[in-house]
């Protein structure tokens, strides 16, 4: 059981899908509870894995490999395992999904399908984080595409079709680039090993790229091109300017629960892929392009923040804030320091919770007020004090207030970028200082938004709005508590991550 | 007990948590929860202080985060400085808690108020106890959050909401500098612990340029938090918060955190002469400009706010001129008398039905004896009259400015001291002497620039007729307070704190009085290498007294006696007056220089995002579709066209084979 | 070797099928021309399945008849695809025919059987004449089938377009063939192939023209751009099951002969045509996908989709000289995948468009509410066509992609994958209609006939199984003796 | 002896004429006839190669017979469809049959 734990975890939601399919769609409450139970079981499984995860041990854990199928000499394996990088994200996925299922209890339209797609999505996301075979990774990566397309397309807002298609085609393009790159990597590694070895294993691939039998094959140009292609593929998902434009559309139109998952987990797949594949397999190229990545990170931070500042729709404000926050991830990984790398991973996790909470709050407020336009809101602290309070807390977490998880990641990322070696990023200090402006801008747009929505005189039409329902407390308290726990005592996360981070960074020699 | 110093912040935290979860059931009783929490904290603080004076010390840390080989720890530590600060914070916080019991009792959200106060006390005490500068920063930000929450406590007032945002954002600018400074410092020293940082500084591990940069960045944090020029603009606006909050946060404790920060990082600053100069000049300029603005303000709280800025400038000036003890000593005394003044102001405001304009007051001496007397003590203390607390500390600051050798700084300090005495007594005389000018008109100065836009609060309130229960700070006090028109003394909940603070304002100065042997100095500098502390000679004390006396006399002549017309200076130099009334137009300048362009850039980028970045994406989509559509035009239903296309296609293929490949000739 | 020495038993499946087709024809005569005849449909399916079993059995004795007719692994797989395909088309047709009484059912089935026969002969042929005969049996049957709704204006218009353009294409093929014959003196592909390098050296212009004429003709049959113009019109006008037939059976059989001709005839001179094929593949993928984006008619959309898919299938042909058997494996795997997903999709389309009375895309509106099973199955088919993972289409495409990269056709591989992403758009617009649009007010729950749901189920199962465990099929391919002639 | 190139040229010319007819004539019967013309040009080719080609043998003539047969079948089907079309549309003008397009 222990060694197949990950497999159980990944495919458990599919069992849930089968169970849900057997329930008549009229039994809405049964379906809802079942979905919650299934995701809860996944959450418990992931926590058991978390508990059994050995700290301070380098390398993979819970790893298994099984031959899957082959096309000619191409052997495809079912190879999974986790390390300190994927472990937190795995738990993040189950938590955010479980809470988003709680958050979606207010959905009344086509309930059965909703949970089927959510659970399929859960399998895809978990699979992405455990897959160690590139082909498998790609499969799971793509598997997340369709459920999200449906979640946006069926339960979305006015422009749902545009948004869902844009999401599908845009991120589909990213996946296509990723696939091409994987194939290129495969062939180059094959060639580099003098046609003696074929592998899709990320682990083996990293070894081959580090120490090929035939170094002439893997020239700097080839590796550089591969790295850039990987970067673009994941940049679309993360998203990185200028590949970000699908995100606001998708977020604004998606239903609350889907937004939570989209911002909470799906974007993280981009960052995860970048670290796992880009930095894990091609550390030298990552170092070579570190400056570019750092600059893009800064652009993301500033650009996202500036756009968030002028949004008129609360949800798109949060969406742009996601773009801004993902810049921190880029900044952290580009620094090639343990702190920066850890900051990036912290940011992935922390933003997962915070953005999910923000989207949930926006969704809850929209559900009551029927508007997301900032200028039409106001005085919510008066009409729905609990919701407004959590909204404010979420905004503060997003601002990066110490004691909440966002601060830790920002701190680490900044320590990273300022500590970046001169040989990797020449103008690290300048980049860091510009990025710091983003902190002010973040505070500006979020506080301004809070001033205009939760503060101010209460609007006539918002009198008597119902405040938070008991079921809504689950995601609100859950997400905020997690953010606080990580913010107050980040050690629980850092002792899981640290060894892996040291491994990644040590590949470039410090 | 010193091992249990962690209890000091924990009591308010528990109070906060209790009020957060059960506050709505406690209502007014919430106040007692808060008071109890702070009371316990205060008791523990006193015990800790005595043990500390006895020489005990204690540090406790746990691992907070690990990355690579580095570990950051968190914990608590008791040093002389923070032992002193613990007393100041818990004491002021306690009296403010007590004061608020009466001041806020009509507010339906009193439990929320007390929970915020609890959170603030927790954060401020955590800040003080921090054993490393990162932990300090963490609590530094948390007190900022509490300030935001408390300034915006009456969030339904647009001005309060705006002020809260402004307070948070402006200090955030400084905080970013501080954060960067810490980050660079960490990368240089590998630690956030004070000890290791100072060791690195002493051993010259950091080069001078970087050291100066770090010091200045850290100082940026202090500038923001302690409302120093040019980031002082938030503090006057923060007066939108309830008055007890102003007393606690925006006079006694949080705003002093910047000074405290410079204090705890003092060895770092000492190592960089450039940084010290910048610190000194910032302090001096702030002290002076804030004082000039305080001269003309007519809102009682704003006068006090500018006075606070000015006094904080004094402290910074002292630190910048090597007067380590002088600055921190003034921090302590100021905490007491400024809290006293604010609470006194609160008492007055409460009594005059929530008017804040001093032109609507007057003649309160006889009506509110305790308030008036304590207010007078506070005013005397801040003016620096012997033997009150302010005298001792201000004298030391002047000494430090003088002995630093920069005559300019000394001159500014002296002029500012004069202005301090003047504007405080202007305030005192206008408020407590003469005829009571309130009662018969509602808000005569609503459009007066002196009250400025924030005075429009009562206009905004008209939009919210439903806020009757919450917006008690603005409603006619008839049914609320039980006193209709004539102001009268408030209950013991309000006067007791005044008396406590007044006593302290009288005696606090003696802890470092020369004739008692500079006890505080001996306590504070133990184990620290902060250089010899400057002490003035006797003539300086007399000069200081004379200046204070001059200021008081001028105020007396103008506002009590009427010997000089009140608008004497205003009419002589209307331009200057207007400039001061409008606070040097700094707010407008900031809006024009920073806010508007940022928003404009944001708009521009947004347009660009929609039209170019996303435009290209959509264009690719559309053009693909357009290509498809144009291709499909070929399918016109005519089979002969189809044939023709195929044949032409075939010919093209032949041509391709012939020409491009070139194989076939 | 004379004709009488030959091992005629190799032709058993064809002979049996011909006999059975005639039997069906005869029974039809005897039962009167009008009316519903479900038993004939069943009989036809049985015939095809019997033939398929025979095909499978005869494979153990691979060989050839006088360089004219070969039985080898390659032929077997194609024949199985054809037979299963036609069987599924018939199953789809049964319900369709009951709704369209103008169609004479007996004739319809027997002609379908004859077309299957033609396709089988075609893929087994090793001789230009056999090849031509097979091709024409298939083509002429197809002309008839397209025009089967003879009182229907679209159907007859489609038929006349098809017959004229198809005839012209045949003429092109023949004209090209005539030179091959003339310059080698043989119609045997093996002989031609052996002589080919010398021919190209001696008569390069003539051979080029000959090759390209044949390419134009074959290109027409497999509808590659720019010889694809007929396809959308004919697909749209034809009875829907026939559209399925054309887009699957006819096309795959066409690929069969293209491969035969390429492998046997032109492989020695691959340098001359590989680039042309690659360019045609690229153009086909681009144009097919681009036009498909704009389509609102399901059948027409599927026609362009089919064109695009033909482009994908051309890629391994361009990679053939480098990849050899692997290329064939790719083509066959993708053919099987294509057969299943396309026929599955057409099964749904047939039912839905017939029920709605229009083949507009909007007829799919709210299908999920009307028949969840069909909608989900259709989604799987479309996802597979789009090439998303865990479906046969993905594995097929991935293989082709691998092949293309291995063969240094990276640019083609990139076009292919980008065009796959473009195809998301129109495949998912079906899905959008099914799941995200409310059904029209008067649309009731859809009754799914057994035959049709059988087709859908089989197609669905195969699509998913091949997507998850492609080795079911791939392992068979590795054991095959592809070509008996070499 | 007449060189084979003449036959081939004749065939080519016939093929082109046929093709031209297919592509330009508006009368469907003539279009069908033009296809026959193209097929017949193939026949000329085959017969010429069969008789005086570099590798003259009988296969070409056999091929020709098949082509003729198939052409007949094709013409039959074509005409049948043409009649059906005429019944439906009352016209056998090529350019009027464009219901199916775009």
From TrEMBL, chain A:
Looking at the UniProt entry, the stretches that span the membrane are 6-23, 30-53, 85-107, 114-132, 138-155, 167-187, 225-247, 254-275, 287-310, 317-338, 344-366, 387-418, 424-450, 471-492
Entry's localization field: Cell membrane; Membrane
The residue ranges of the NADH:quinone oxidoreductase/Mrp antiporter transmembrane domain are: 131-429
| Annotated keywords | Membrane, Transmembrane, Transmembrane helix
GO BP:
ATP synthesis coupled electron transport; electron transport coupled proton transport
Q: How does it sit in the membrane?
A: Multi-pass membrane protein
The record's section on InterPro entries has:
NADH_Q_OxRdtase_chainM/4 (IPR010227), NADH_UbQ_OxRdtase (IPR003918), ND/Mrp_TM (IPR001750)
Q: Which family does it belong to?
A: Belongs to the complex I subunit 4 family.
What protein does this entry describe? NADH-quinone oxidoreductase subunit M
Species for this entry: Salipaludibacillus keqinensis
From TrEMBL, chain B:
Gene Ontology molecular function, alphabetical:
NADH dehydrogenase (ubiquinone) activity; NADH dehydrogenase activity
TM ranges? 6-23, 30-50, 81-100, 112-130, 136-156, 206-224, 245-269, 275-296, 303-329, 335-352, 373-392, 407-429, 498-518, 538-559, 642-664
Q: Does the keyword Transmembrane helix apply?
A: yes
Q: Where is this region: Disordered?
A: 440-489
The NADH:quinone oxidoreductase/Mrp antiporter transmembrane domain extends over: 130-420
Compartments reported by the entry: Cell membrane; Membrane
Provide the NADH-Ubiquinone oxidoreductase (complex I) chain 5 N-terminal domain boundaries: 64-114
Its family remark reads: Belongs to the CPA3 antiporters (TC 2.A.63) subunit A family.
Q: Which NCBIfam families match?
A: NDH_I_L (TIGR01974), PRK06590.1 (NF005141)
Protein's name in the database:
NADH-quinone oxidoreductase subunit L
Q: Which organism is it from?
A: Salipaludibacillus keqinensis
UniProtKB/TrEMBL annotation, chain C:
Q: Which family does it belong to?
A: Belongs to the complex I subunit 2 family.
Principal subcellular localisation of the protein: membrane
Q: Where is the NADH:quinone oxidoreductase/Mrp antiporter transmembrane domain?
A: 125-422
Annotated coiled-coil positions are none
The name of this protein is: NADH-quinone oxidoreductase subunit N
Which keywords has UniProt assigned to this entry?
Cell membrane, Membrane, NAD, Quinone, Translocase, Transmembrane, Transmembrane helix, Transport
Q: Name one Pfam family in it.
A: Proton_antipo_M
Catalytic reaction(s) noted: a quinone + NADH + 5 H(+)(in) = a quinol + NAD(+) + 4 H(+)(out)
One GO term in the molecular function aspect is:
quinone binding
* NCBIfam families, per database record: NDH_I_N
GO cellular component: a single term: plasma membrane
Function text: NDH-1 shuttles electrons from NADH, via FMN and iron-sulfur (Fe-S) centers, to quinones in the respiratory chain. The immediate electron acceptor for the enzyme in this species is believed to be a menaquinone. Couples the redox reaction to proton translocation (for every two electrons transferred, four hydrogen ions are translocated across the cytoplasmic membrane), and thus conserves the redox energy in a proton gradient.
Enumerate the transmembrane spans: 6-27, 39-57, 69-94, 106-123, 129-148, 160-183, 203-230, 242-267, 273-294, 301-319, 331-352, 373-395, 401-428, 448-473
Q: Which organism is it from?
A: Salipaludibacillus keqinensis
Q: Top-level EC class, please?
A: translocase
* Enzyme Commission (EC) number: 7.1.1.-
What are the recorded Gene Ontology BP terms? ATP synthesis coupled electron transport
The protein's superkingdom reads Bacteria
| Organism taxonomic ancestry | Bacteria, Bacillati, Bacillota, Bacilli, Bacillales
InterPro entries tied to this protein: NADH-Q_OxRdtase_suN/2 (IPR010096), ND/Mrp_TM (IPR001750)
* Compartments it resides in: Cell membrane; Membrane
TrEMBL record, chain D:
Q: How does it sit in the membrane?
A: Multi-pass membrane protein
Q: Which UniProt keywords apply?
A: Cell membrane, Membrane, NAD, Quinone, Translocase, Transmembrane, Transmembrane helix, Transport
Single Gene Ontology BP term?
Answer: ATP synthesis coupled electron transport
The record's subunit annotation is: NDH-1 is composed of 14 different subunits. Subunits NuoA, H, J, K, L, M, N constitute the membrane sector of the complex.
Q: Please identify the protein, giving its name as recorded.
A: NADH-quinone oxidoreductase subunit K
**Localization, UniProt:** Cell membrane; Membrane
Molecular function as annotated in GO: NADH dehydrogenase (quinone) (non-electrogenic) activity; quinone binding
Underlying gene: nuoK
Taxonomic lineage of the native organism:
Bacteria, Bacillati, Bacillota, Bacilli, Bacillales
Q: What family, per the record? A: Belongs to the complex I subunit 4L family.
């Amino acid at each position: 059981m222990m060694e197949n734990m990950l497999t159980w975890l990944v495919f458990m939601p599919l069992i849930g899908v089968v169970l849900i399919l057997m329930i008549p769609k009229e039994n809405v409450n049964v379906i809802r509870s079942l979905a919650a139970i299934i995701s809860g079981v996944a959450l418990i499984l992931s926590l058991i894995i978390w508990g059994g995860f050995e700290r301070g041990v380098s390398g993979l854990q819970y790893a298994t490999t099984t031959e899957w199928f082959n096309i000619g000499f191409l052997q495809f394996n079912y190879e999974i395992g986790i390390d300190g990088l994927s472990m937190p994200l795995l738990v993040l996925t189950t938590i955010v999904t479980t809470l988003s299922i709680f958050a979606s209890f207010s959905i009344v339209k086509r309930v059965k399908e909703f949970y089927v797609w959510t659970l399929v999505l859960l399998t895809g996301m978990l699979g992405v984080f455990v897959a160690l075979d590139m082909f498998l990774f790609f499969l799971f990566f793509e598997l997340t595409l369709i459920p999200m397309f449906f979640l946006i397309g069926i339960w979305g807002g006015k422009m749902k079709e545009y948004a869902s298609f844009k999401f599908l085609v845009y991120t589909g393009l990213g996946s296509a680039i990723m696939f091409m790159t994987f194939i290129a990597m495969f062939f180059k590694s094959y060639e580099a090993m003098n046609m003696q070895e074929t592998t899709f294993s990320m682990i083996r691939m990293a070894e081959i790229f580090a120490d090929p039998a035939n170094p002439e094959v893997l020239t700097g140009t080839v590796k550089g091109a591969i790295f850039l292609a990987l970067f673009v593929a994941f940049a679309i998902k993360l998203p990185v300017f200028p590949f970000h434009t699908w995100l606001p559309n998708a977020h604004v139109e998606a239903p609350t629960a889907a937004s939570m998952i989209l911002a909470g987990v799906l974007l993280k797949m981009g960052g995860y892929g970048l670290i796992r594949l880009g930095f894990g397999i091609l550390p030298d190229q990552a170092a070579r392009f570190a400056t570019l990545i750092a600059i893009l990170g800064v652009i993301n931070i500033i650009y996202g923040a500036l756009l968030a500042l002028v949004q008129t729709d609360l949800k798109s404000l949060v969406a742009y804030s996601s773009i801004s926050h993902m810049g921190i991830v880029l900044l952290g990984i580009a620094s090639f320091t343990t702190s920066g790398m850890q900051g990036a991973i912290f940011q992935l996790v922390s933003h997962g919770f915070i953005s999910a909470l923000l989207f949930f709050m926006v969704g809850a407020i929209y559900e009551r007020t029927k508007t997301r336009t900032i200028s039409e809101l106001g005085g919510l602290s008066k009409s729905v004090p609990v919701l407004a309070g959590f909204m404010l807390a979420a905004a503060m977490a997003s601002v990066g207030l110490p004691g909440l998880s966002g601060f830790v990641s920002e701190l680490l990322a900044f320590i990273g970028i300022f500590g970046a070696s001169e040989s990797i990023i020449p103008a690290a200090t300048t980049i860091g200082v510009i990025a710091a402006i983003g902190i002010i801008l973040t505070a500006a747009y979020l506080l301004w938004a809070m001033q205009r929505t939760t503060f101010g005189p209460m609007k006539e039409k918002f009198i008597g709005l119902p405040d938070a329902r008991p079921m809504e407390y689950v995601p609100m308290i859950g997400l905020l508590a997690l953010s606080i726990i990580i913010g107050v005592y980040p050690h629980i996360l850092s002792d899981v991550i640290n060894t892996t981070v040291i491994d990644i960074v040590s590949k470039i020699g410090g | 007990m010193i091992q249990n110093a962690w209890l000091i912040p924990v009591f308010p935290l528990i109070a906060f948590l209790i009020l957060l979860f059960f506050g709505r059931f406690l209502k007014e009783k919430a106040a007692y929860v808060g008071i109890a929490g702070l009371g316990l904290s205060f008791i523990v603080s006193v015990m800790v202080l005595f043990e500390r004076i006895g020489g005990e010390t204690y540090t406790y840390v746990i691992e907070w985060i690990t990355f690579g080989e580095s570990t950051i720890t968190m914990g608590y530590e008791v040093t002389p400085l923070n032992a002193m600060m613990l007393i100041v914070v818990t004491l002021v916080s306690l009296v403010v808690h007590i004061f608020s019991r009466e001041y806020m009792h009509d507010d339906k959200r009193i439990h929320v108020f007390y929970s915020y106060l609890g959170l603030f006390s927790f954060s401020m005490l955590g800040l003080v106890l921090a054993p490393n500068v990162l932990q300090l920063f963490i609590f530094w930000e948390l007190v900022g959050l509490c300030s935001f929450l408390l300034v915006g406590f009456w969030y339904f007032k647009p001005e309060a909401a705006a002020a809260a945002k402004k307070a948070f954002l402006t200090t955030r600018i400084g905080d970013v500098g501080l954060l960067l400074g810490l980050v660079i410092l960490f990368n240089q020293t590998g630690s956030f612990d004070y000890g290791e940082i100072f060791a690195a500084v002493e051993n010259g591990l950091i080069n001078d340029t970087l050291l100066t940069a770090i010091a200045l960045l850290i100082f940026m944090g202090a500038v923001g938090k302690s409302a120093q020029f040019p980031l002082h603009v938030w503090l006057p606006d923060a007066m939108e918060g309830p008055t007890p909050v102003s007393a606690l946060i925006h006079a006694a404790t949080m705003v002093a955190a910047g000074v405290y920060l410079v204090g705890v990082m003092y060895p770092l600053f000492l190592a960089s002469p450039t940084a010290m100069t910048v610190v000194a000049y910032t302090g001096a300029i702030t002290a002076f400009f804030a004082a000039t603005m305080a001269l003309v303000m007519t809102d009682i709280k704003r006068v006090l706010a500018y006075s606070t800025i000015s006094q904080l400038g004094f402290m910074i000036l002292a630190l910048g001129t090597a007067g380590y003890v002088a600055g921190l000593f003034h921090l302590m005394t100021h905490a007491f008398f400024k809290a006293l003044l604010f609470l006194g102001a609160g008492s007055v405001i409460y009594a005059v039905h929530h008017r804040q304009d001093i032109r609507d007051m007057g003649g309160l001496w006889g009506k509110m004896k305790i308030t008036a007397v304590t207010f007078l003590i506070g005013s005397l203390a801040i003016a620096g009259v012997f033997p009150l607390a302010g005298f001792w500390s201000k004298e030391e600051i002047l000494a430090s400015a003088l002995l630093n050798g920069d005559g300019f700084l000394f001159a500014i300090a002296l002029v500012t001291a004069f202005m301090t005495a003047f504007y405080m007594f202007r305030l005192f005389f206008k408020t407590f002497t003469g005829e009571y000018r309130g009662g018969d008109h509602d808000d005569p100065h609503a459009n007066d620039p002196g009250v400025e836009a924030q005075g429009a609060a009562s206009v905004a309130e008209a939009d919210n007729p439903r806020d009757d229960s919450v917006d008690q700070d603005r409603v006619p006090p008839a049914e609320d307070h039980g006193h209709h028109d004539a102001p009268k003394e408030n209950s013991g909940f309000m006067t007791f704190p005044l008396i406590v603070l007044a006593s302290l304002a009288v005696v606090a100065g003696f802890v470092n009085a020369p004739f008692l042997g500079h006890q505080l100095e001996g306590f504070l500098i133990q184990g620290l290498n902060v250089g010899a502390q400057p002490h003035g000679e006797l003539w300086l004390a007399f000069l200081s007294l004379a200046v204070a006396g001059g200021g008081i006399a001028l105020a007396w002549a103008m506002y009590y006696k009427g010997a000089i017309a009140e608008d004497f200076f205003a009419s002589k130099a209307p331009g200057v007056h207007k400039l001061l009334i409008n606070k040097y137009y700094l707010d407008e300048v900031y809006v024009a220089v920073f806010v508007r362009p940022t928003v404009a850039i944001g708009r521009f980028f947004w347009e660009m995002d929609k039209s170019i970045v996303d435009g290209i994406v959509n264009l690719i989509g559309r053009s693909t579709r357009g290509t498809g559509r144009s291709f499909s035009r070929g399918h016109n239903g005519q089979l002969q066209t189809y044939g023709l296309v195929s044949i032409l296609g075939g010919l093209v293929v032949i041509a391709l084979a012939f020409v491009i490949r070139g194989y076939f000739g | 070797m004379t004709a009488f020495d030959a091992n005629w038993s190799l032709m058993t499946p064809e002979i049996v099928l011909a006999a059975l087709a005639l039997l069906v024809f005869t029974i039809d005569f005897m039962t009167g021309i009008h009316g519903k005849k479900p038993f004939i449909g069943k009989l036809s399916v049985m015939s095809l399945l019997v033939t398929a079993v025979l095909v499978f059995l005869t494979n153990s004795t691979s060989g050839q008849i006088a360089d004219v007719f070969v039985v080898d692994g390659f032929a077997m797989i194609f024949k199985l695809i054809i037979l299963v395909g036609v069987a599924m088309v018939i199953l789809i047709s049964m319900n369709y025919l009951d709704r369209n009484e103008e169609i004479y059912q007996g004739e319809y089935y027997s002609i379908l059987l004859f077309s299957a026969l033609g396709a089988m002969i075609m893929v087994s042929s090793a001789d230009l004449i056999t090849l031509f005969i097979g091709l024409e049996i298939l083509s002429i049957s197809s002309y008839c089938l397209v025009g089967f709704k003879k009182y229907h204006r679209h159907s007859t218009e489609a038929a006349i377009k098809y017959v004229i353009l198809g005839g012209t294409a045949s003429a092109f093929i023949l004209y090209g063939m005539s030179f091959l014959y003339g310059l080698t003196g043989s119609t045997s592909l093996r002989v031609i192939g052996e002589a080919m390098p010398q021919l190209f050296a001696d008569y390069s212009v003539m051979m080029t023209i000959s090759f390209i004429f044949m390419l134009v003709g074959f290109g027409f049959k497999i509808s590659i751009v720019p010889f694809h113009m007929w396809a959308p019109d004919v697909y749209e006008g034809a009875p829907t099951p026939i559209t399925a037939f054309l887009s699957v059976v006819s096309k795959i059989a066409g690929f069969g002969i293209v491969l035969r001709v390429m492998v046997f005839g032109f492989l020695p001179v691959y340098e001359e045509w590989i680039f042309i094929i690659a360019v045609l593949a690229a153009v086909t993928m681009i144009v097919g996908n681009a036009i498909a984006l704009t389509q609102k008619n399901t059948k027409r959309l599927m026609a362009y989709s089919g064109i695009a898919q033909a482009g994908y299938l051309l890629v391994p042909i361009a990679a053939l000289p480098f990849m050899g058997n692997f290329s064939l494996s790719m083509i066959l795997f993708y053919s099987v995948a294509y057969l299943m997903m396309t026929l599955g999709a057409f099964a749904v389309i047939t039912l839905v468009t017939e029920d709605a009375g229009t083949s507009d895309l909007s007829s799919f509106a709210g299908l999920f509410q009307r028949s969840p099973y069909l909608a989900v199955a259709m989604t799987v088919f479309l996802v597979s066509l789009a090439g998303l993972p865990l479906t046969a289409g993905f594995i097929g495409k991935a293989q082709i992609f691998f092949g293309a990269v291995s063969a240094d056709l990276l640019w083609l591989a990139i076009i292919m994958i980008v065009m796959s992403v473009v195809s998301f758009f129109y495949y998912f617009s079906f899905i959008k209609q099914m799941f995200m649009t409310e059904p029209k007010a008067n649309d009731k729950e859809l009754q799914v006939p057994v035959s049709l749901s059988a087709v859908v189920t089989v197609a669905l199962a195969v699509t998913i199984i091949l997507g998850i465990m492609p080795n079911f099929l791939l392992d068979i391919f590795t054991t095959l003796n592809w070509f008996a002639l070499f | 002896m007449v060189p084979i190139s003449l036959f081939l040229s004749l065939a080519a010319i016939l093929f082109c004429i046929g093709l031209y007819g297919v592509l330009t004539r508006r009368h469907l019967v003539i279009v069908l006839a033009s296809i026959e013309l193209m097929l017949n040009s193939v026949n000329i080719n085959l017969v010429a190669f069969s008789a005086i080609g570099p590798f003259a043998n009988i296969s070409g003539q056999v091929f020709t017979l098949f082509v003729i047969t198939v052409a007949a079948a094709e013409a039959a089907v074509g005409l049948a469809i043409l009649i059906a079309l005429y019944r439906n549309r009352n016209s056998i003008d090529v350019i009027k049959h464009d219901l199916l397009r775009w």
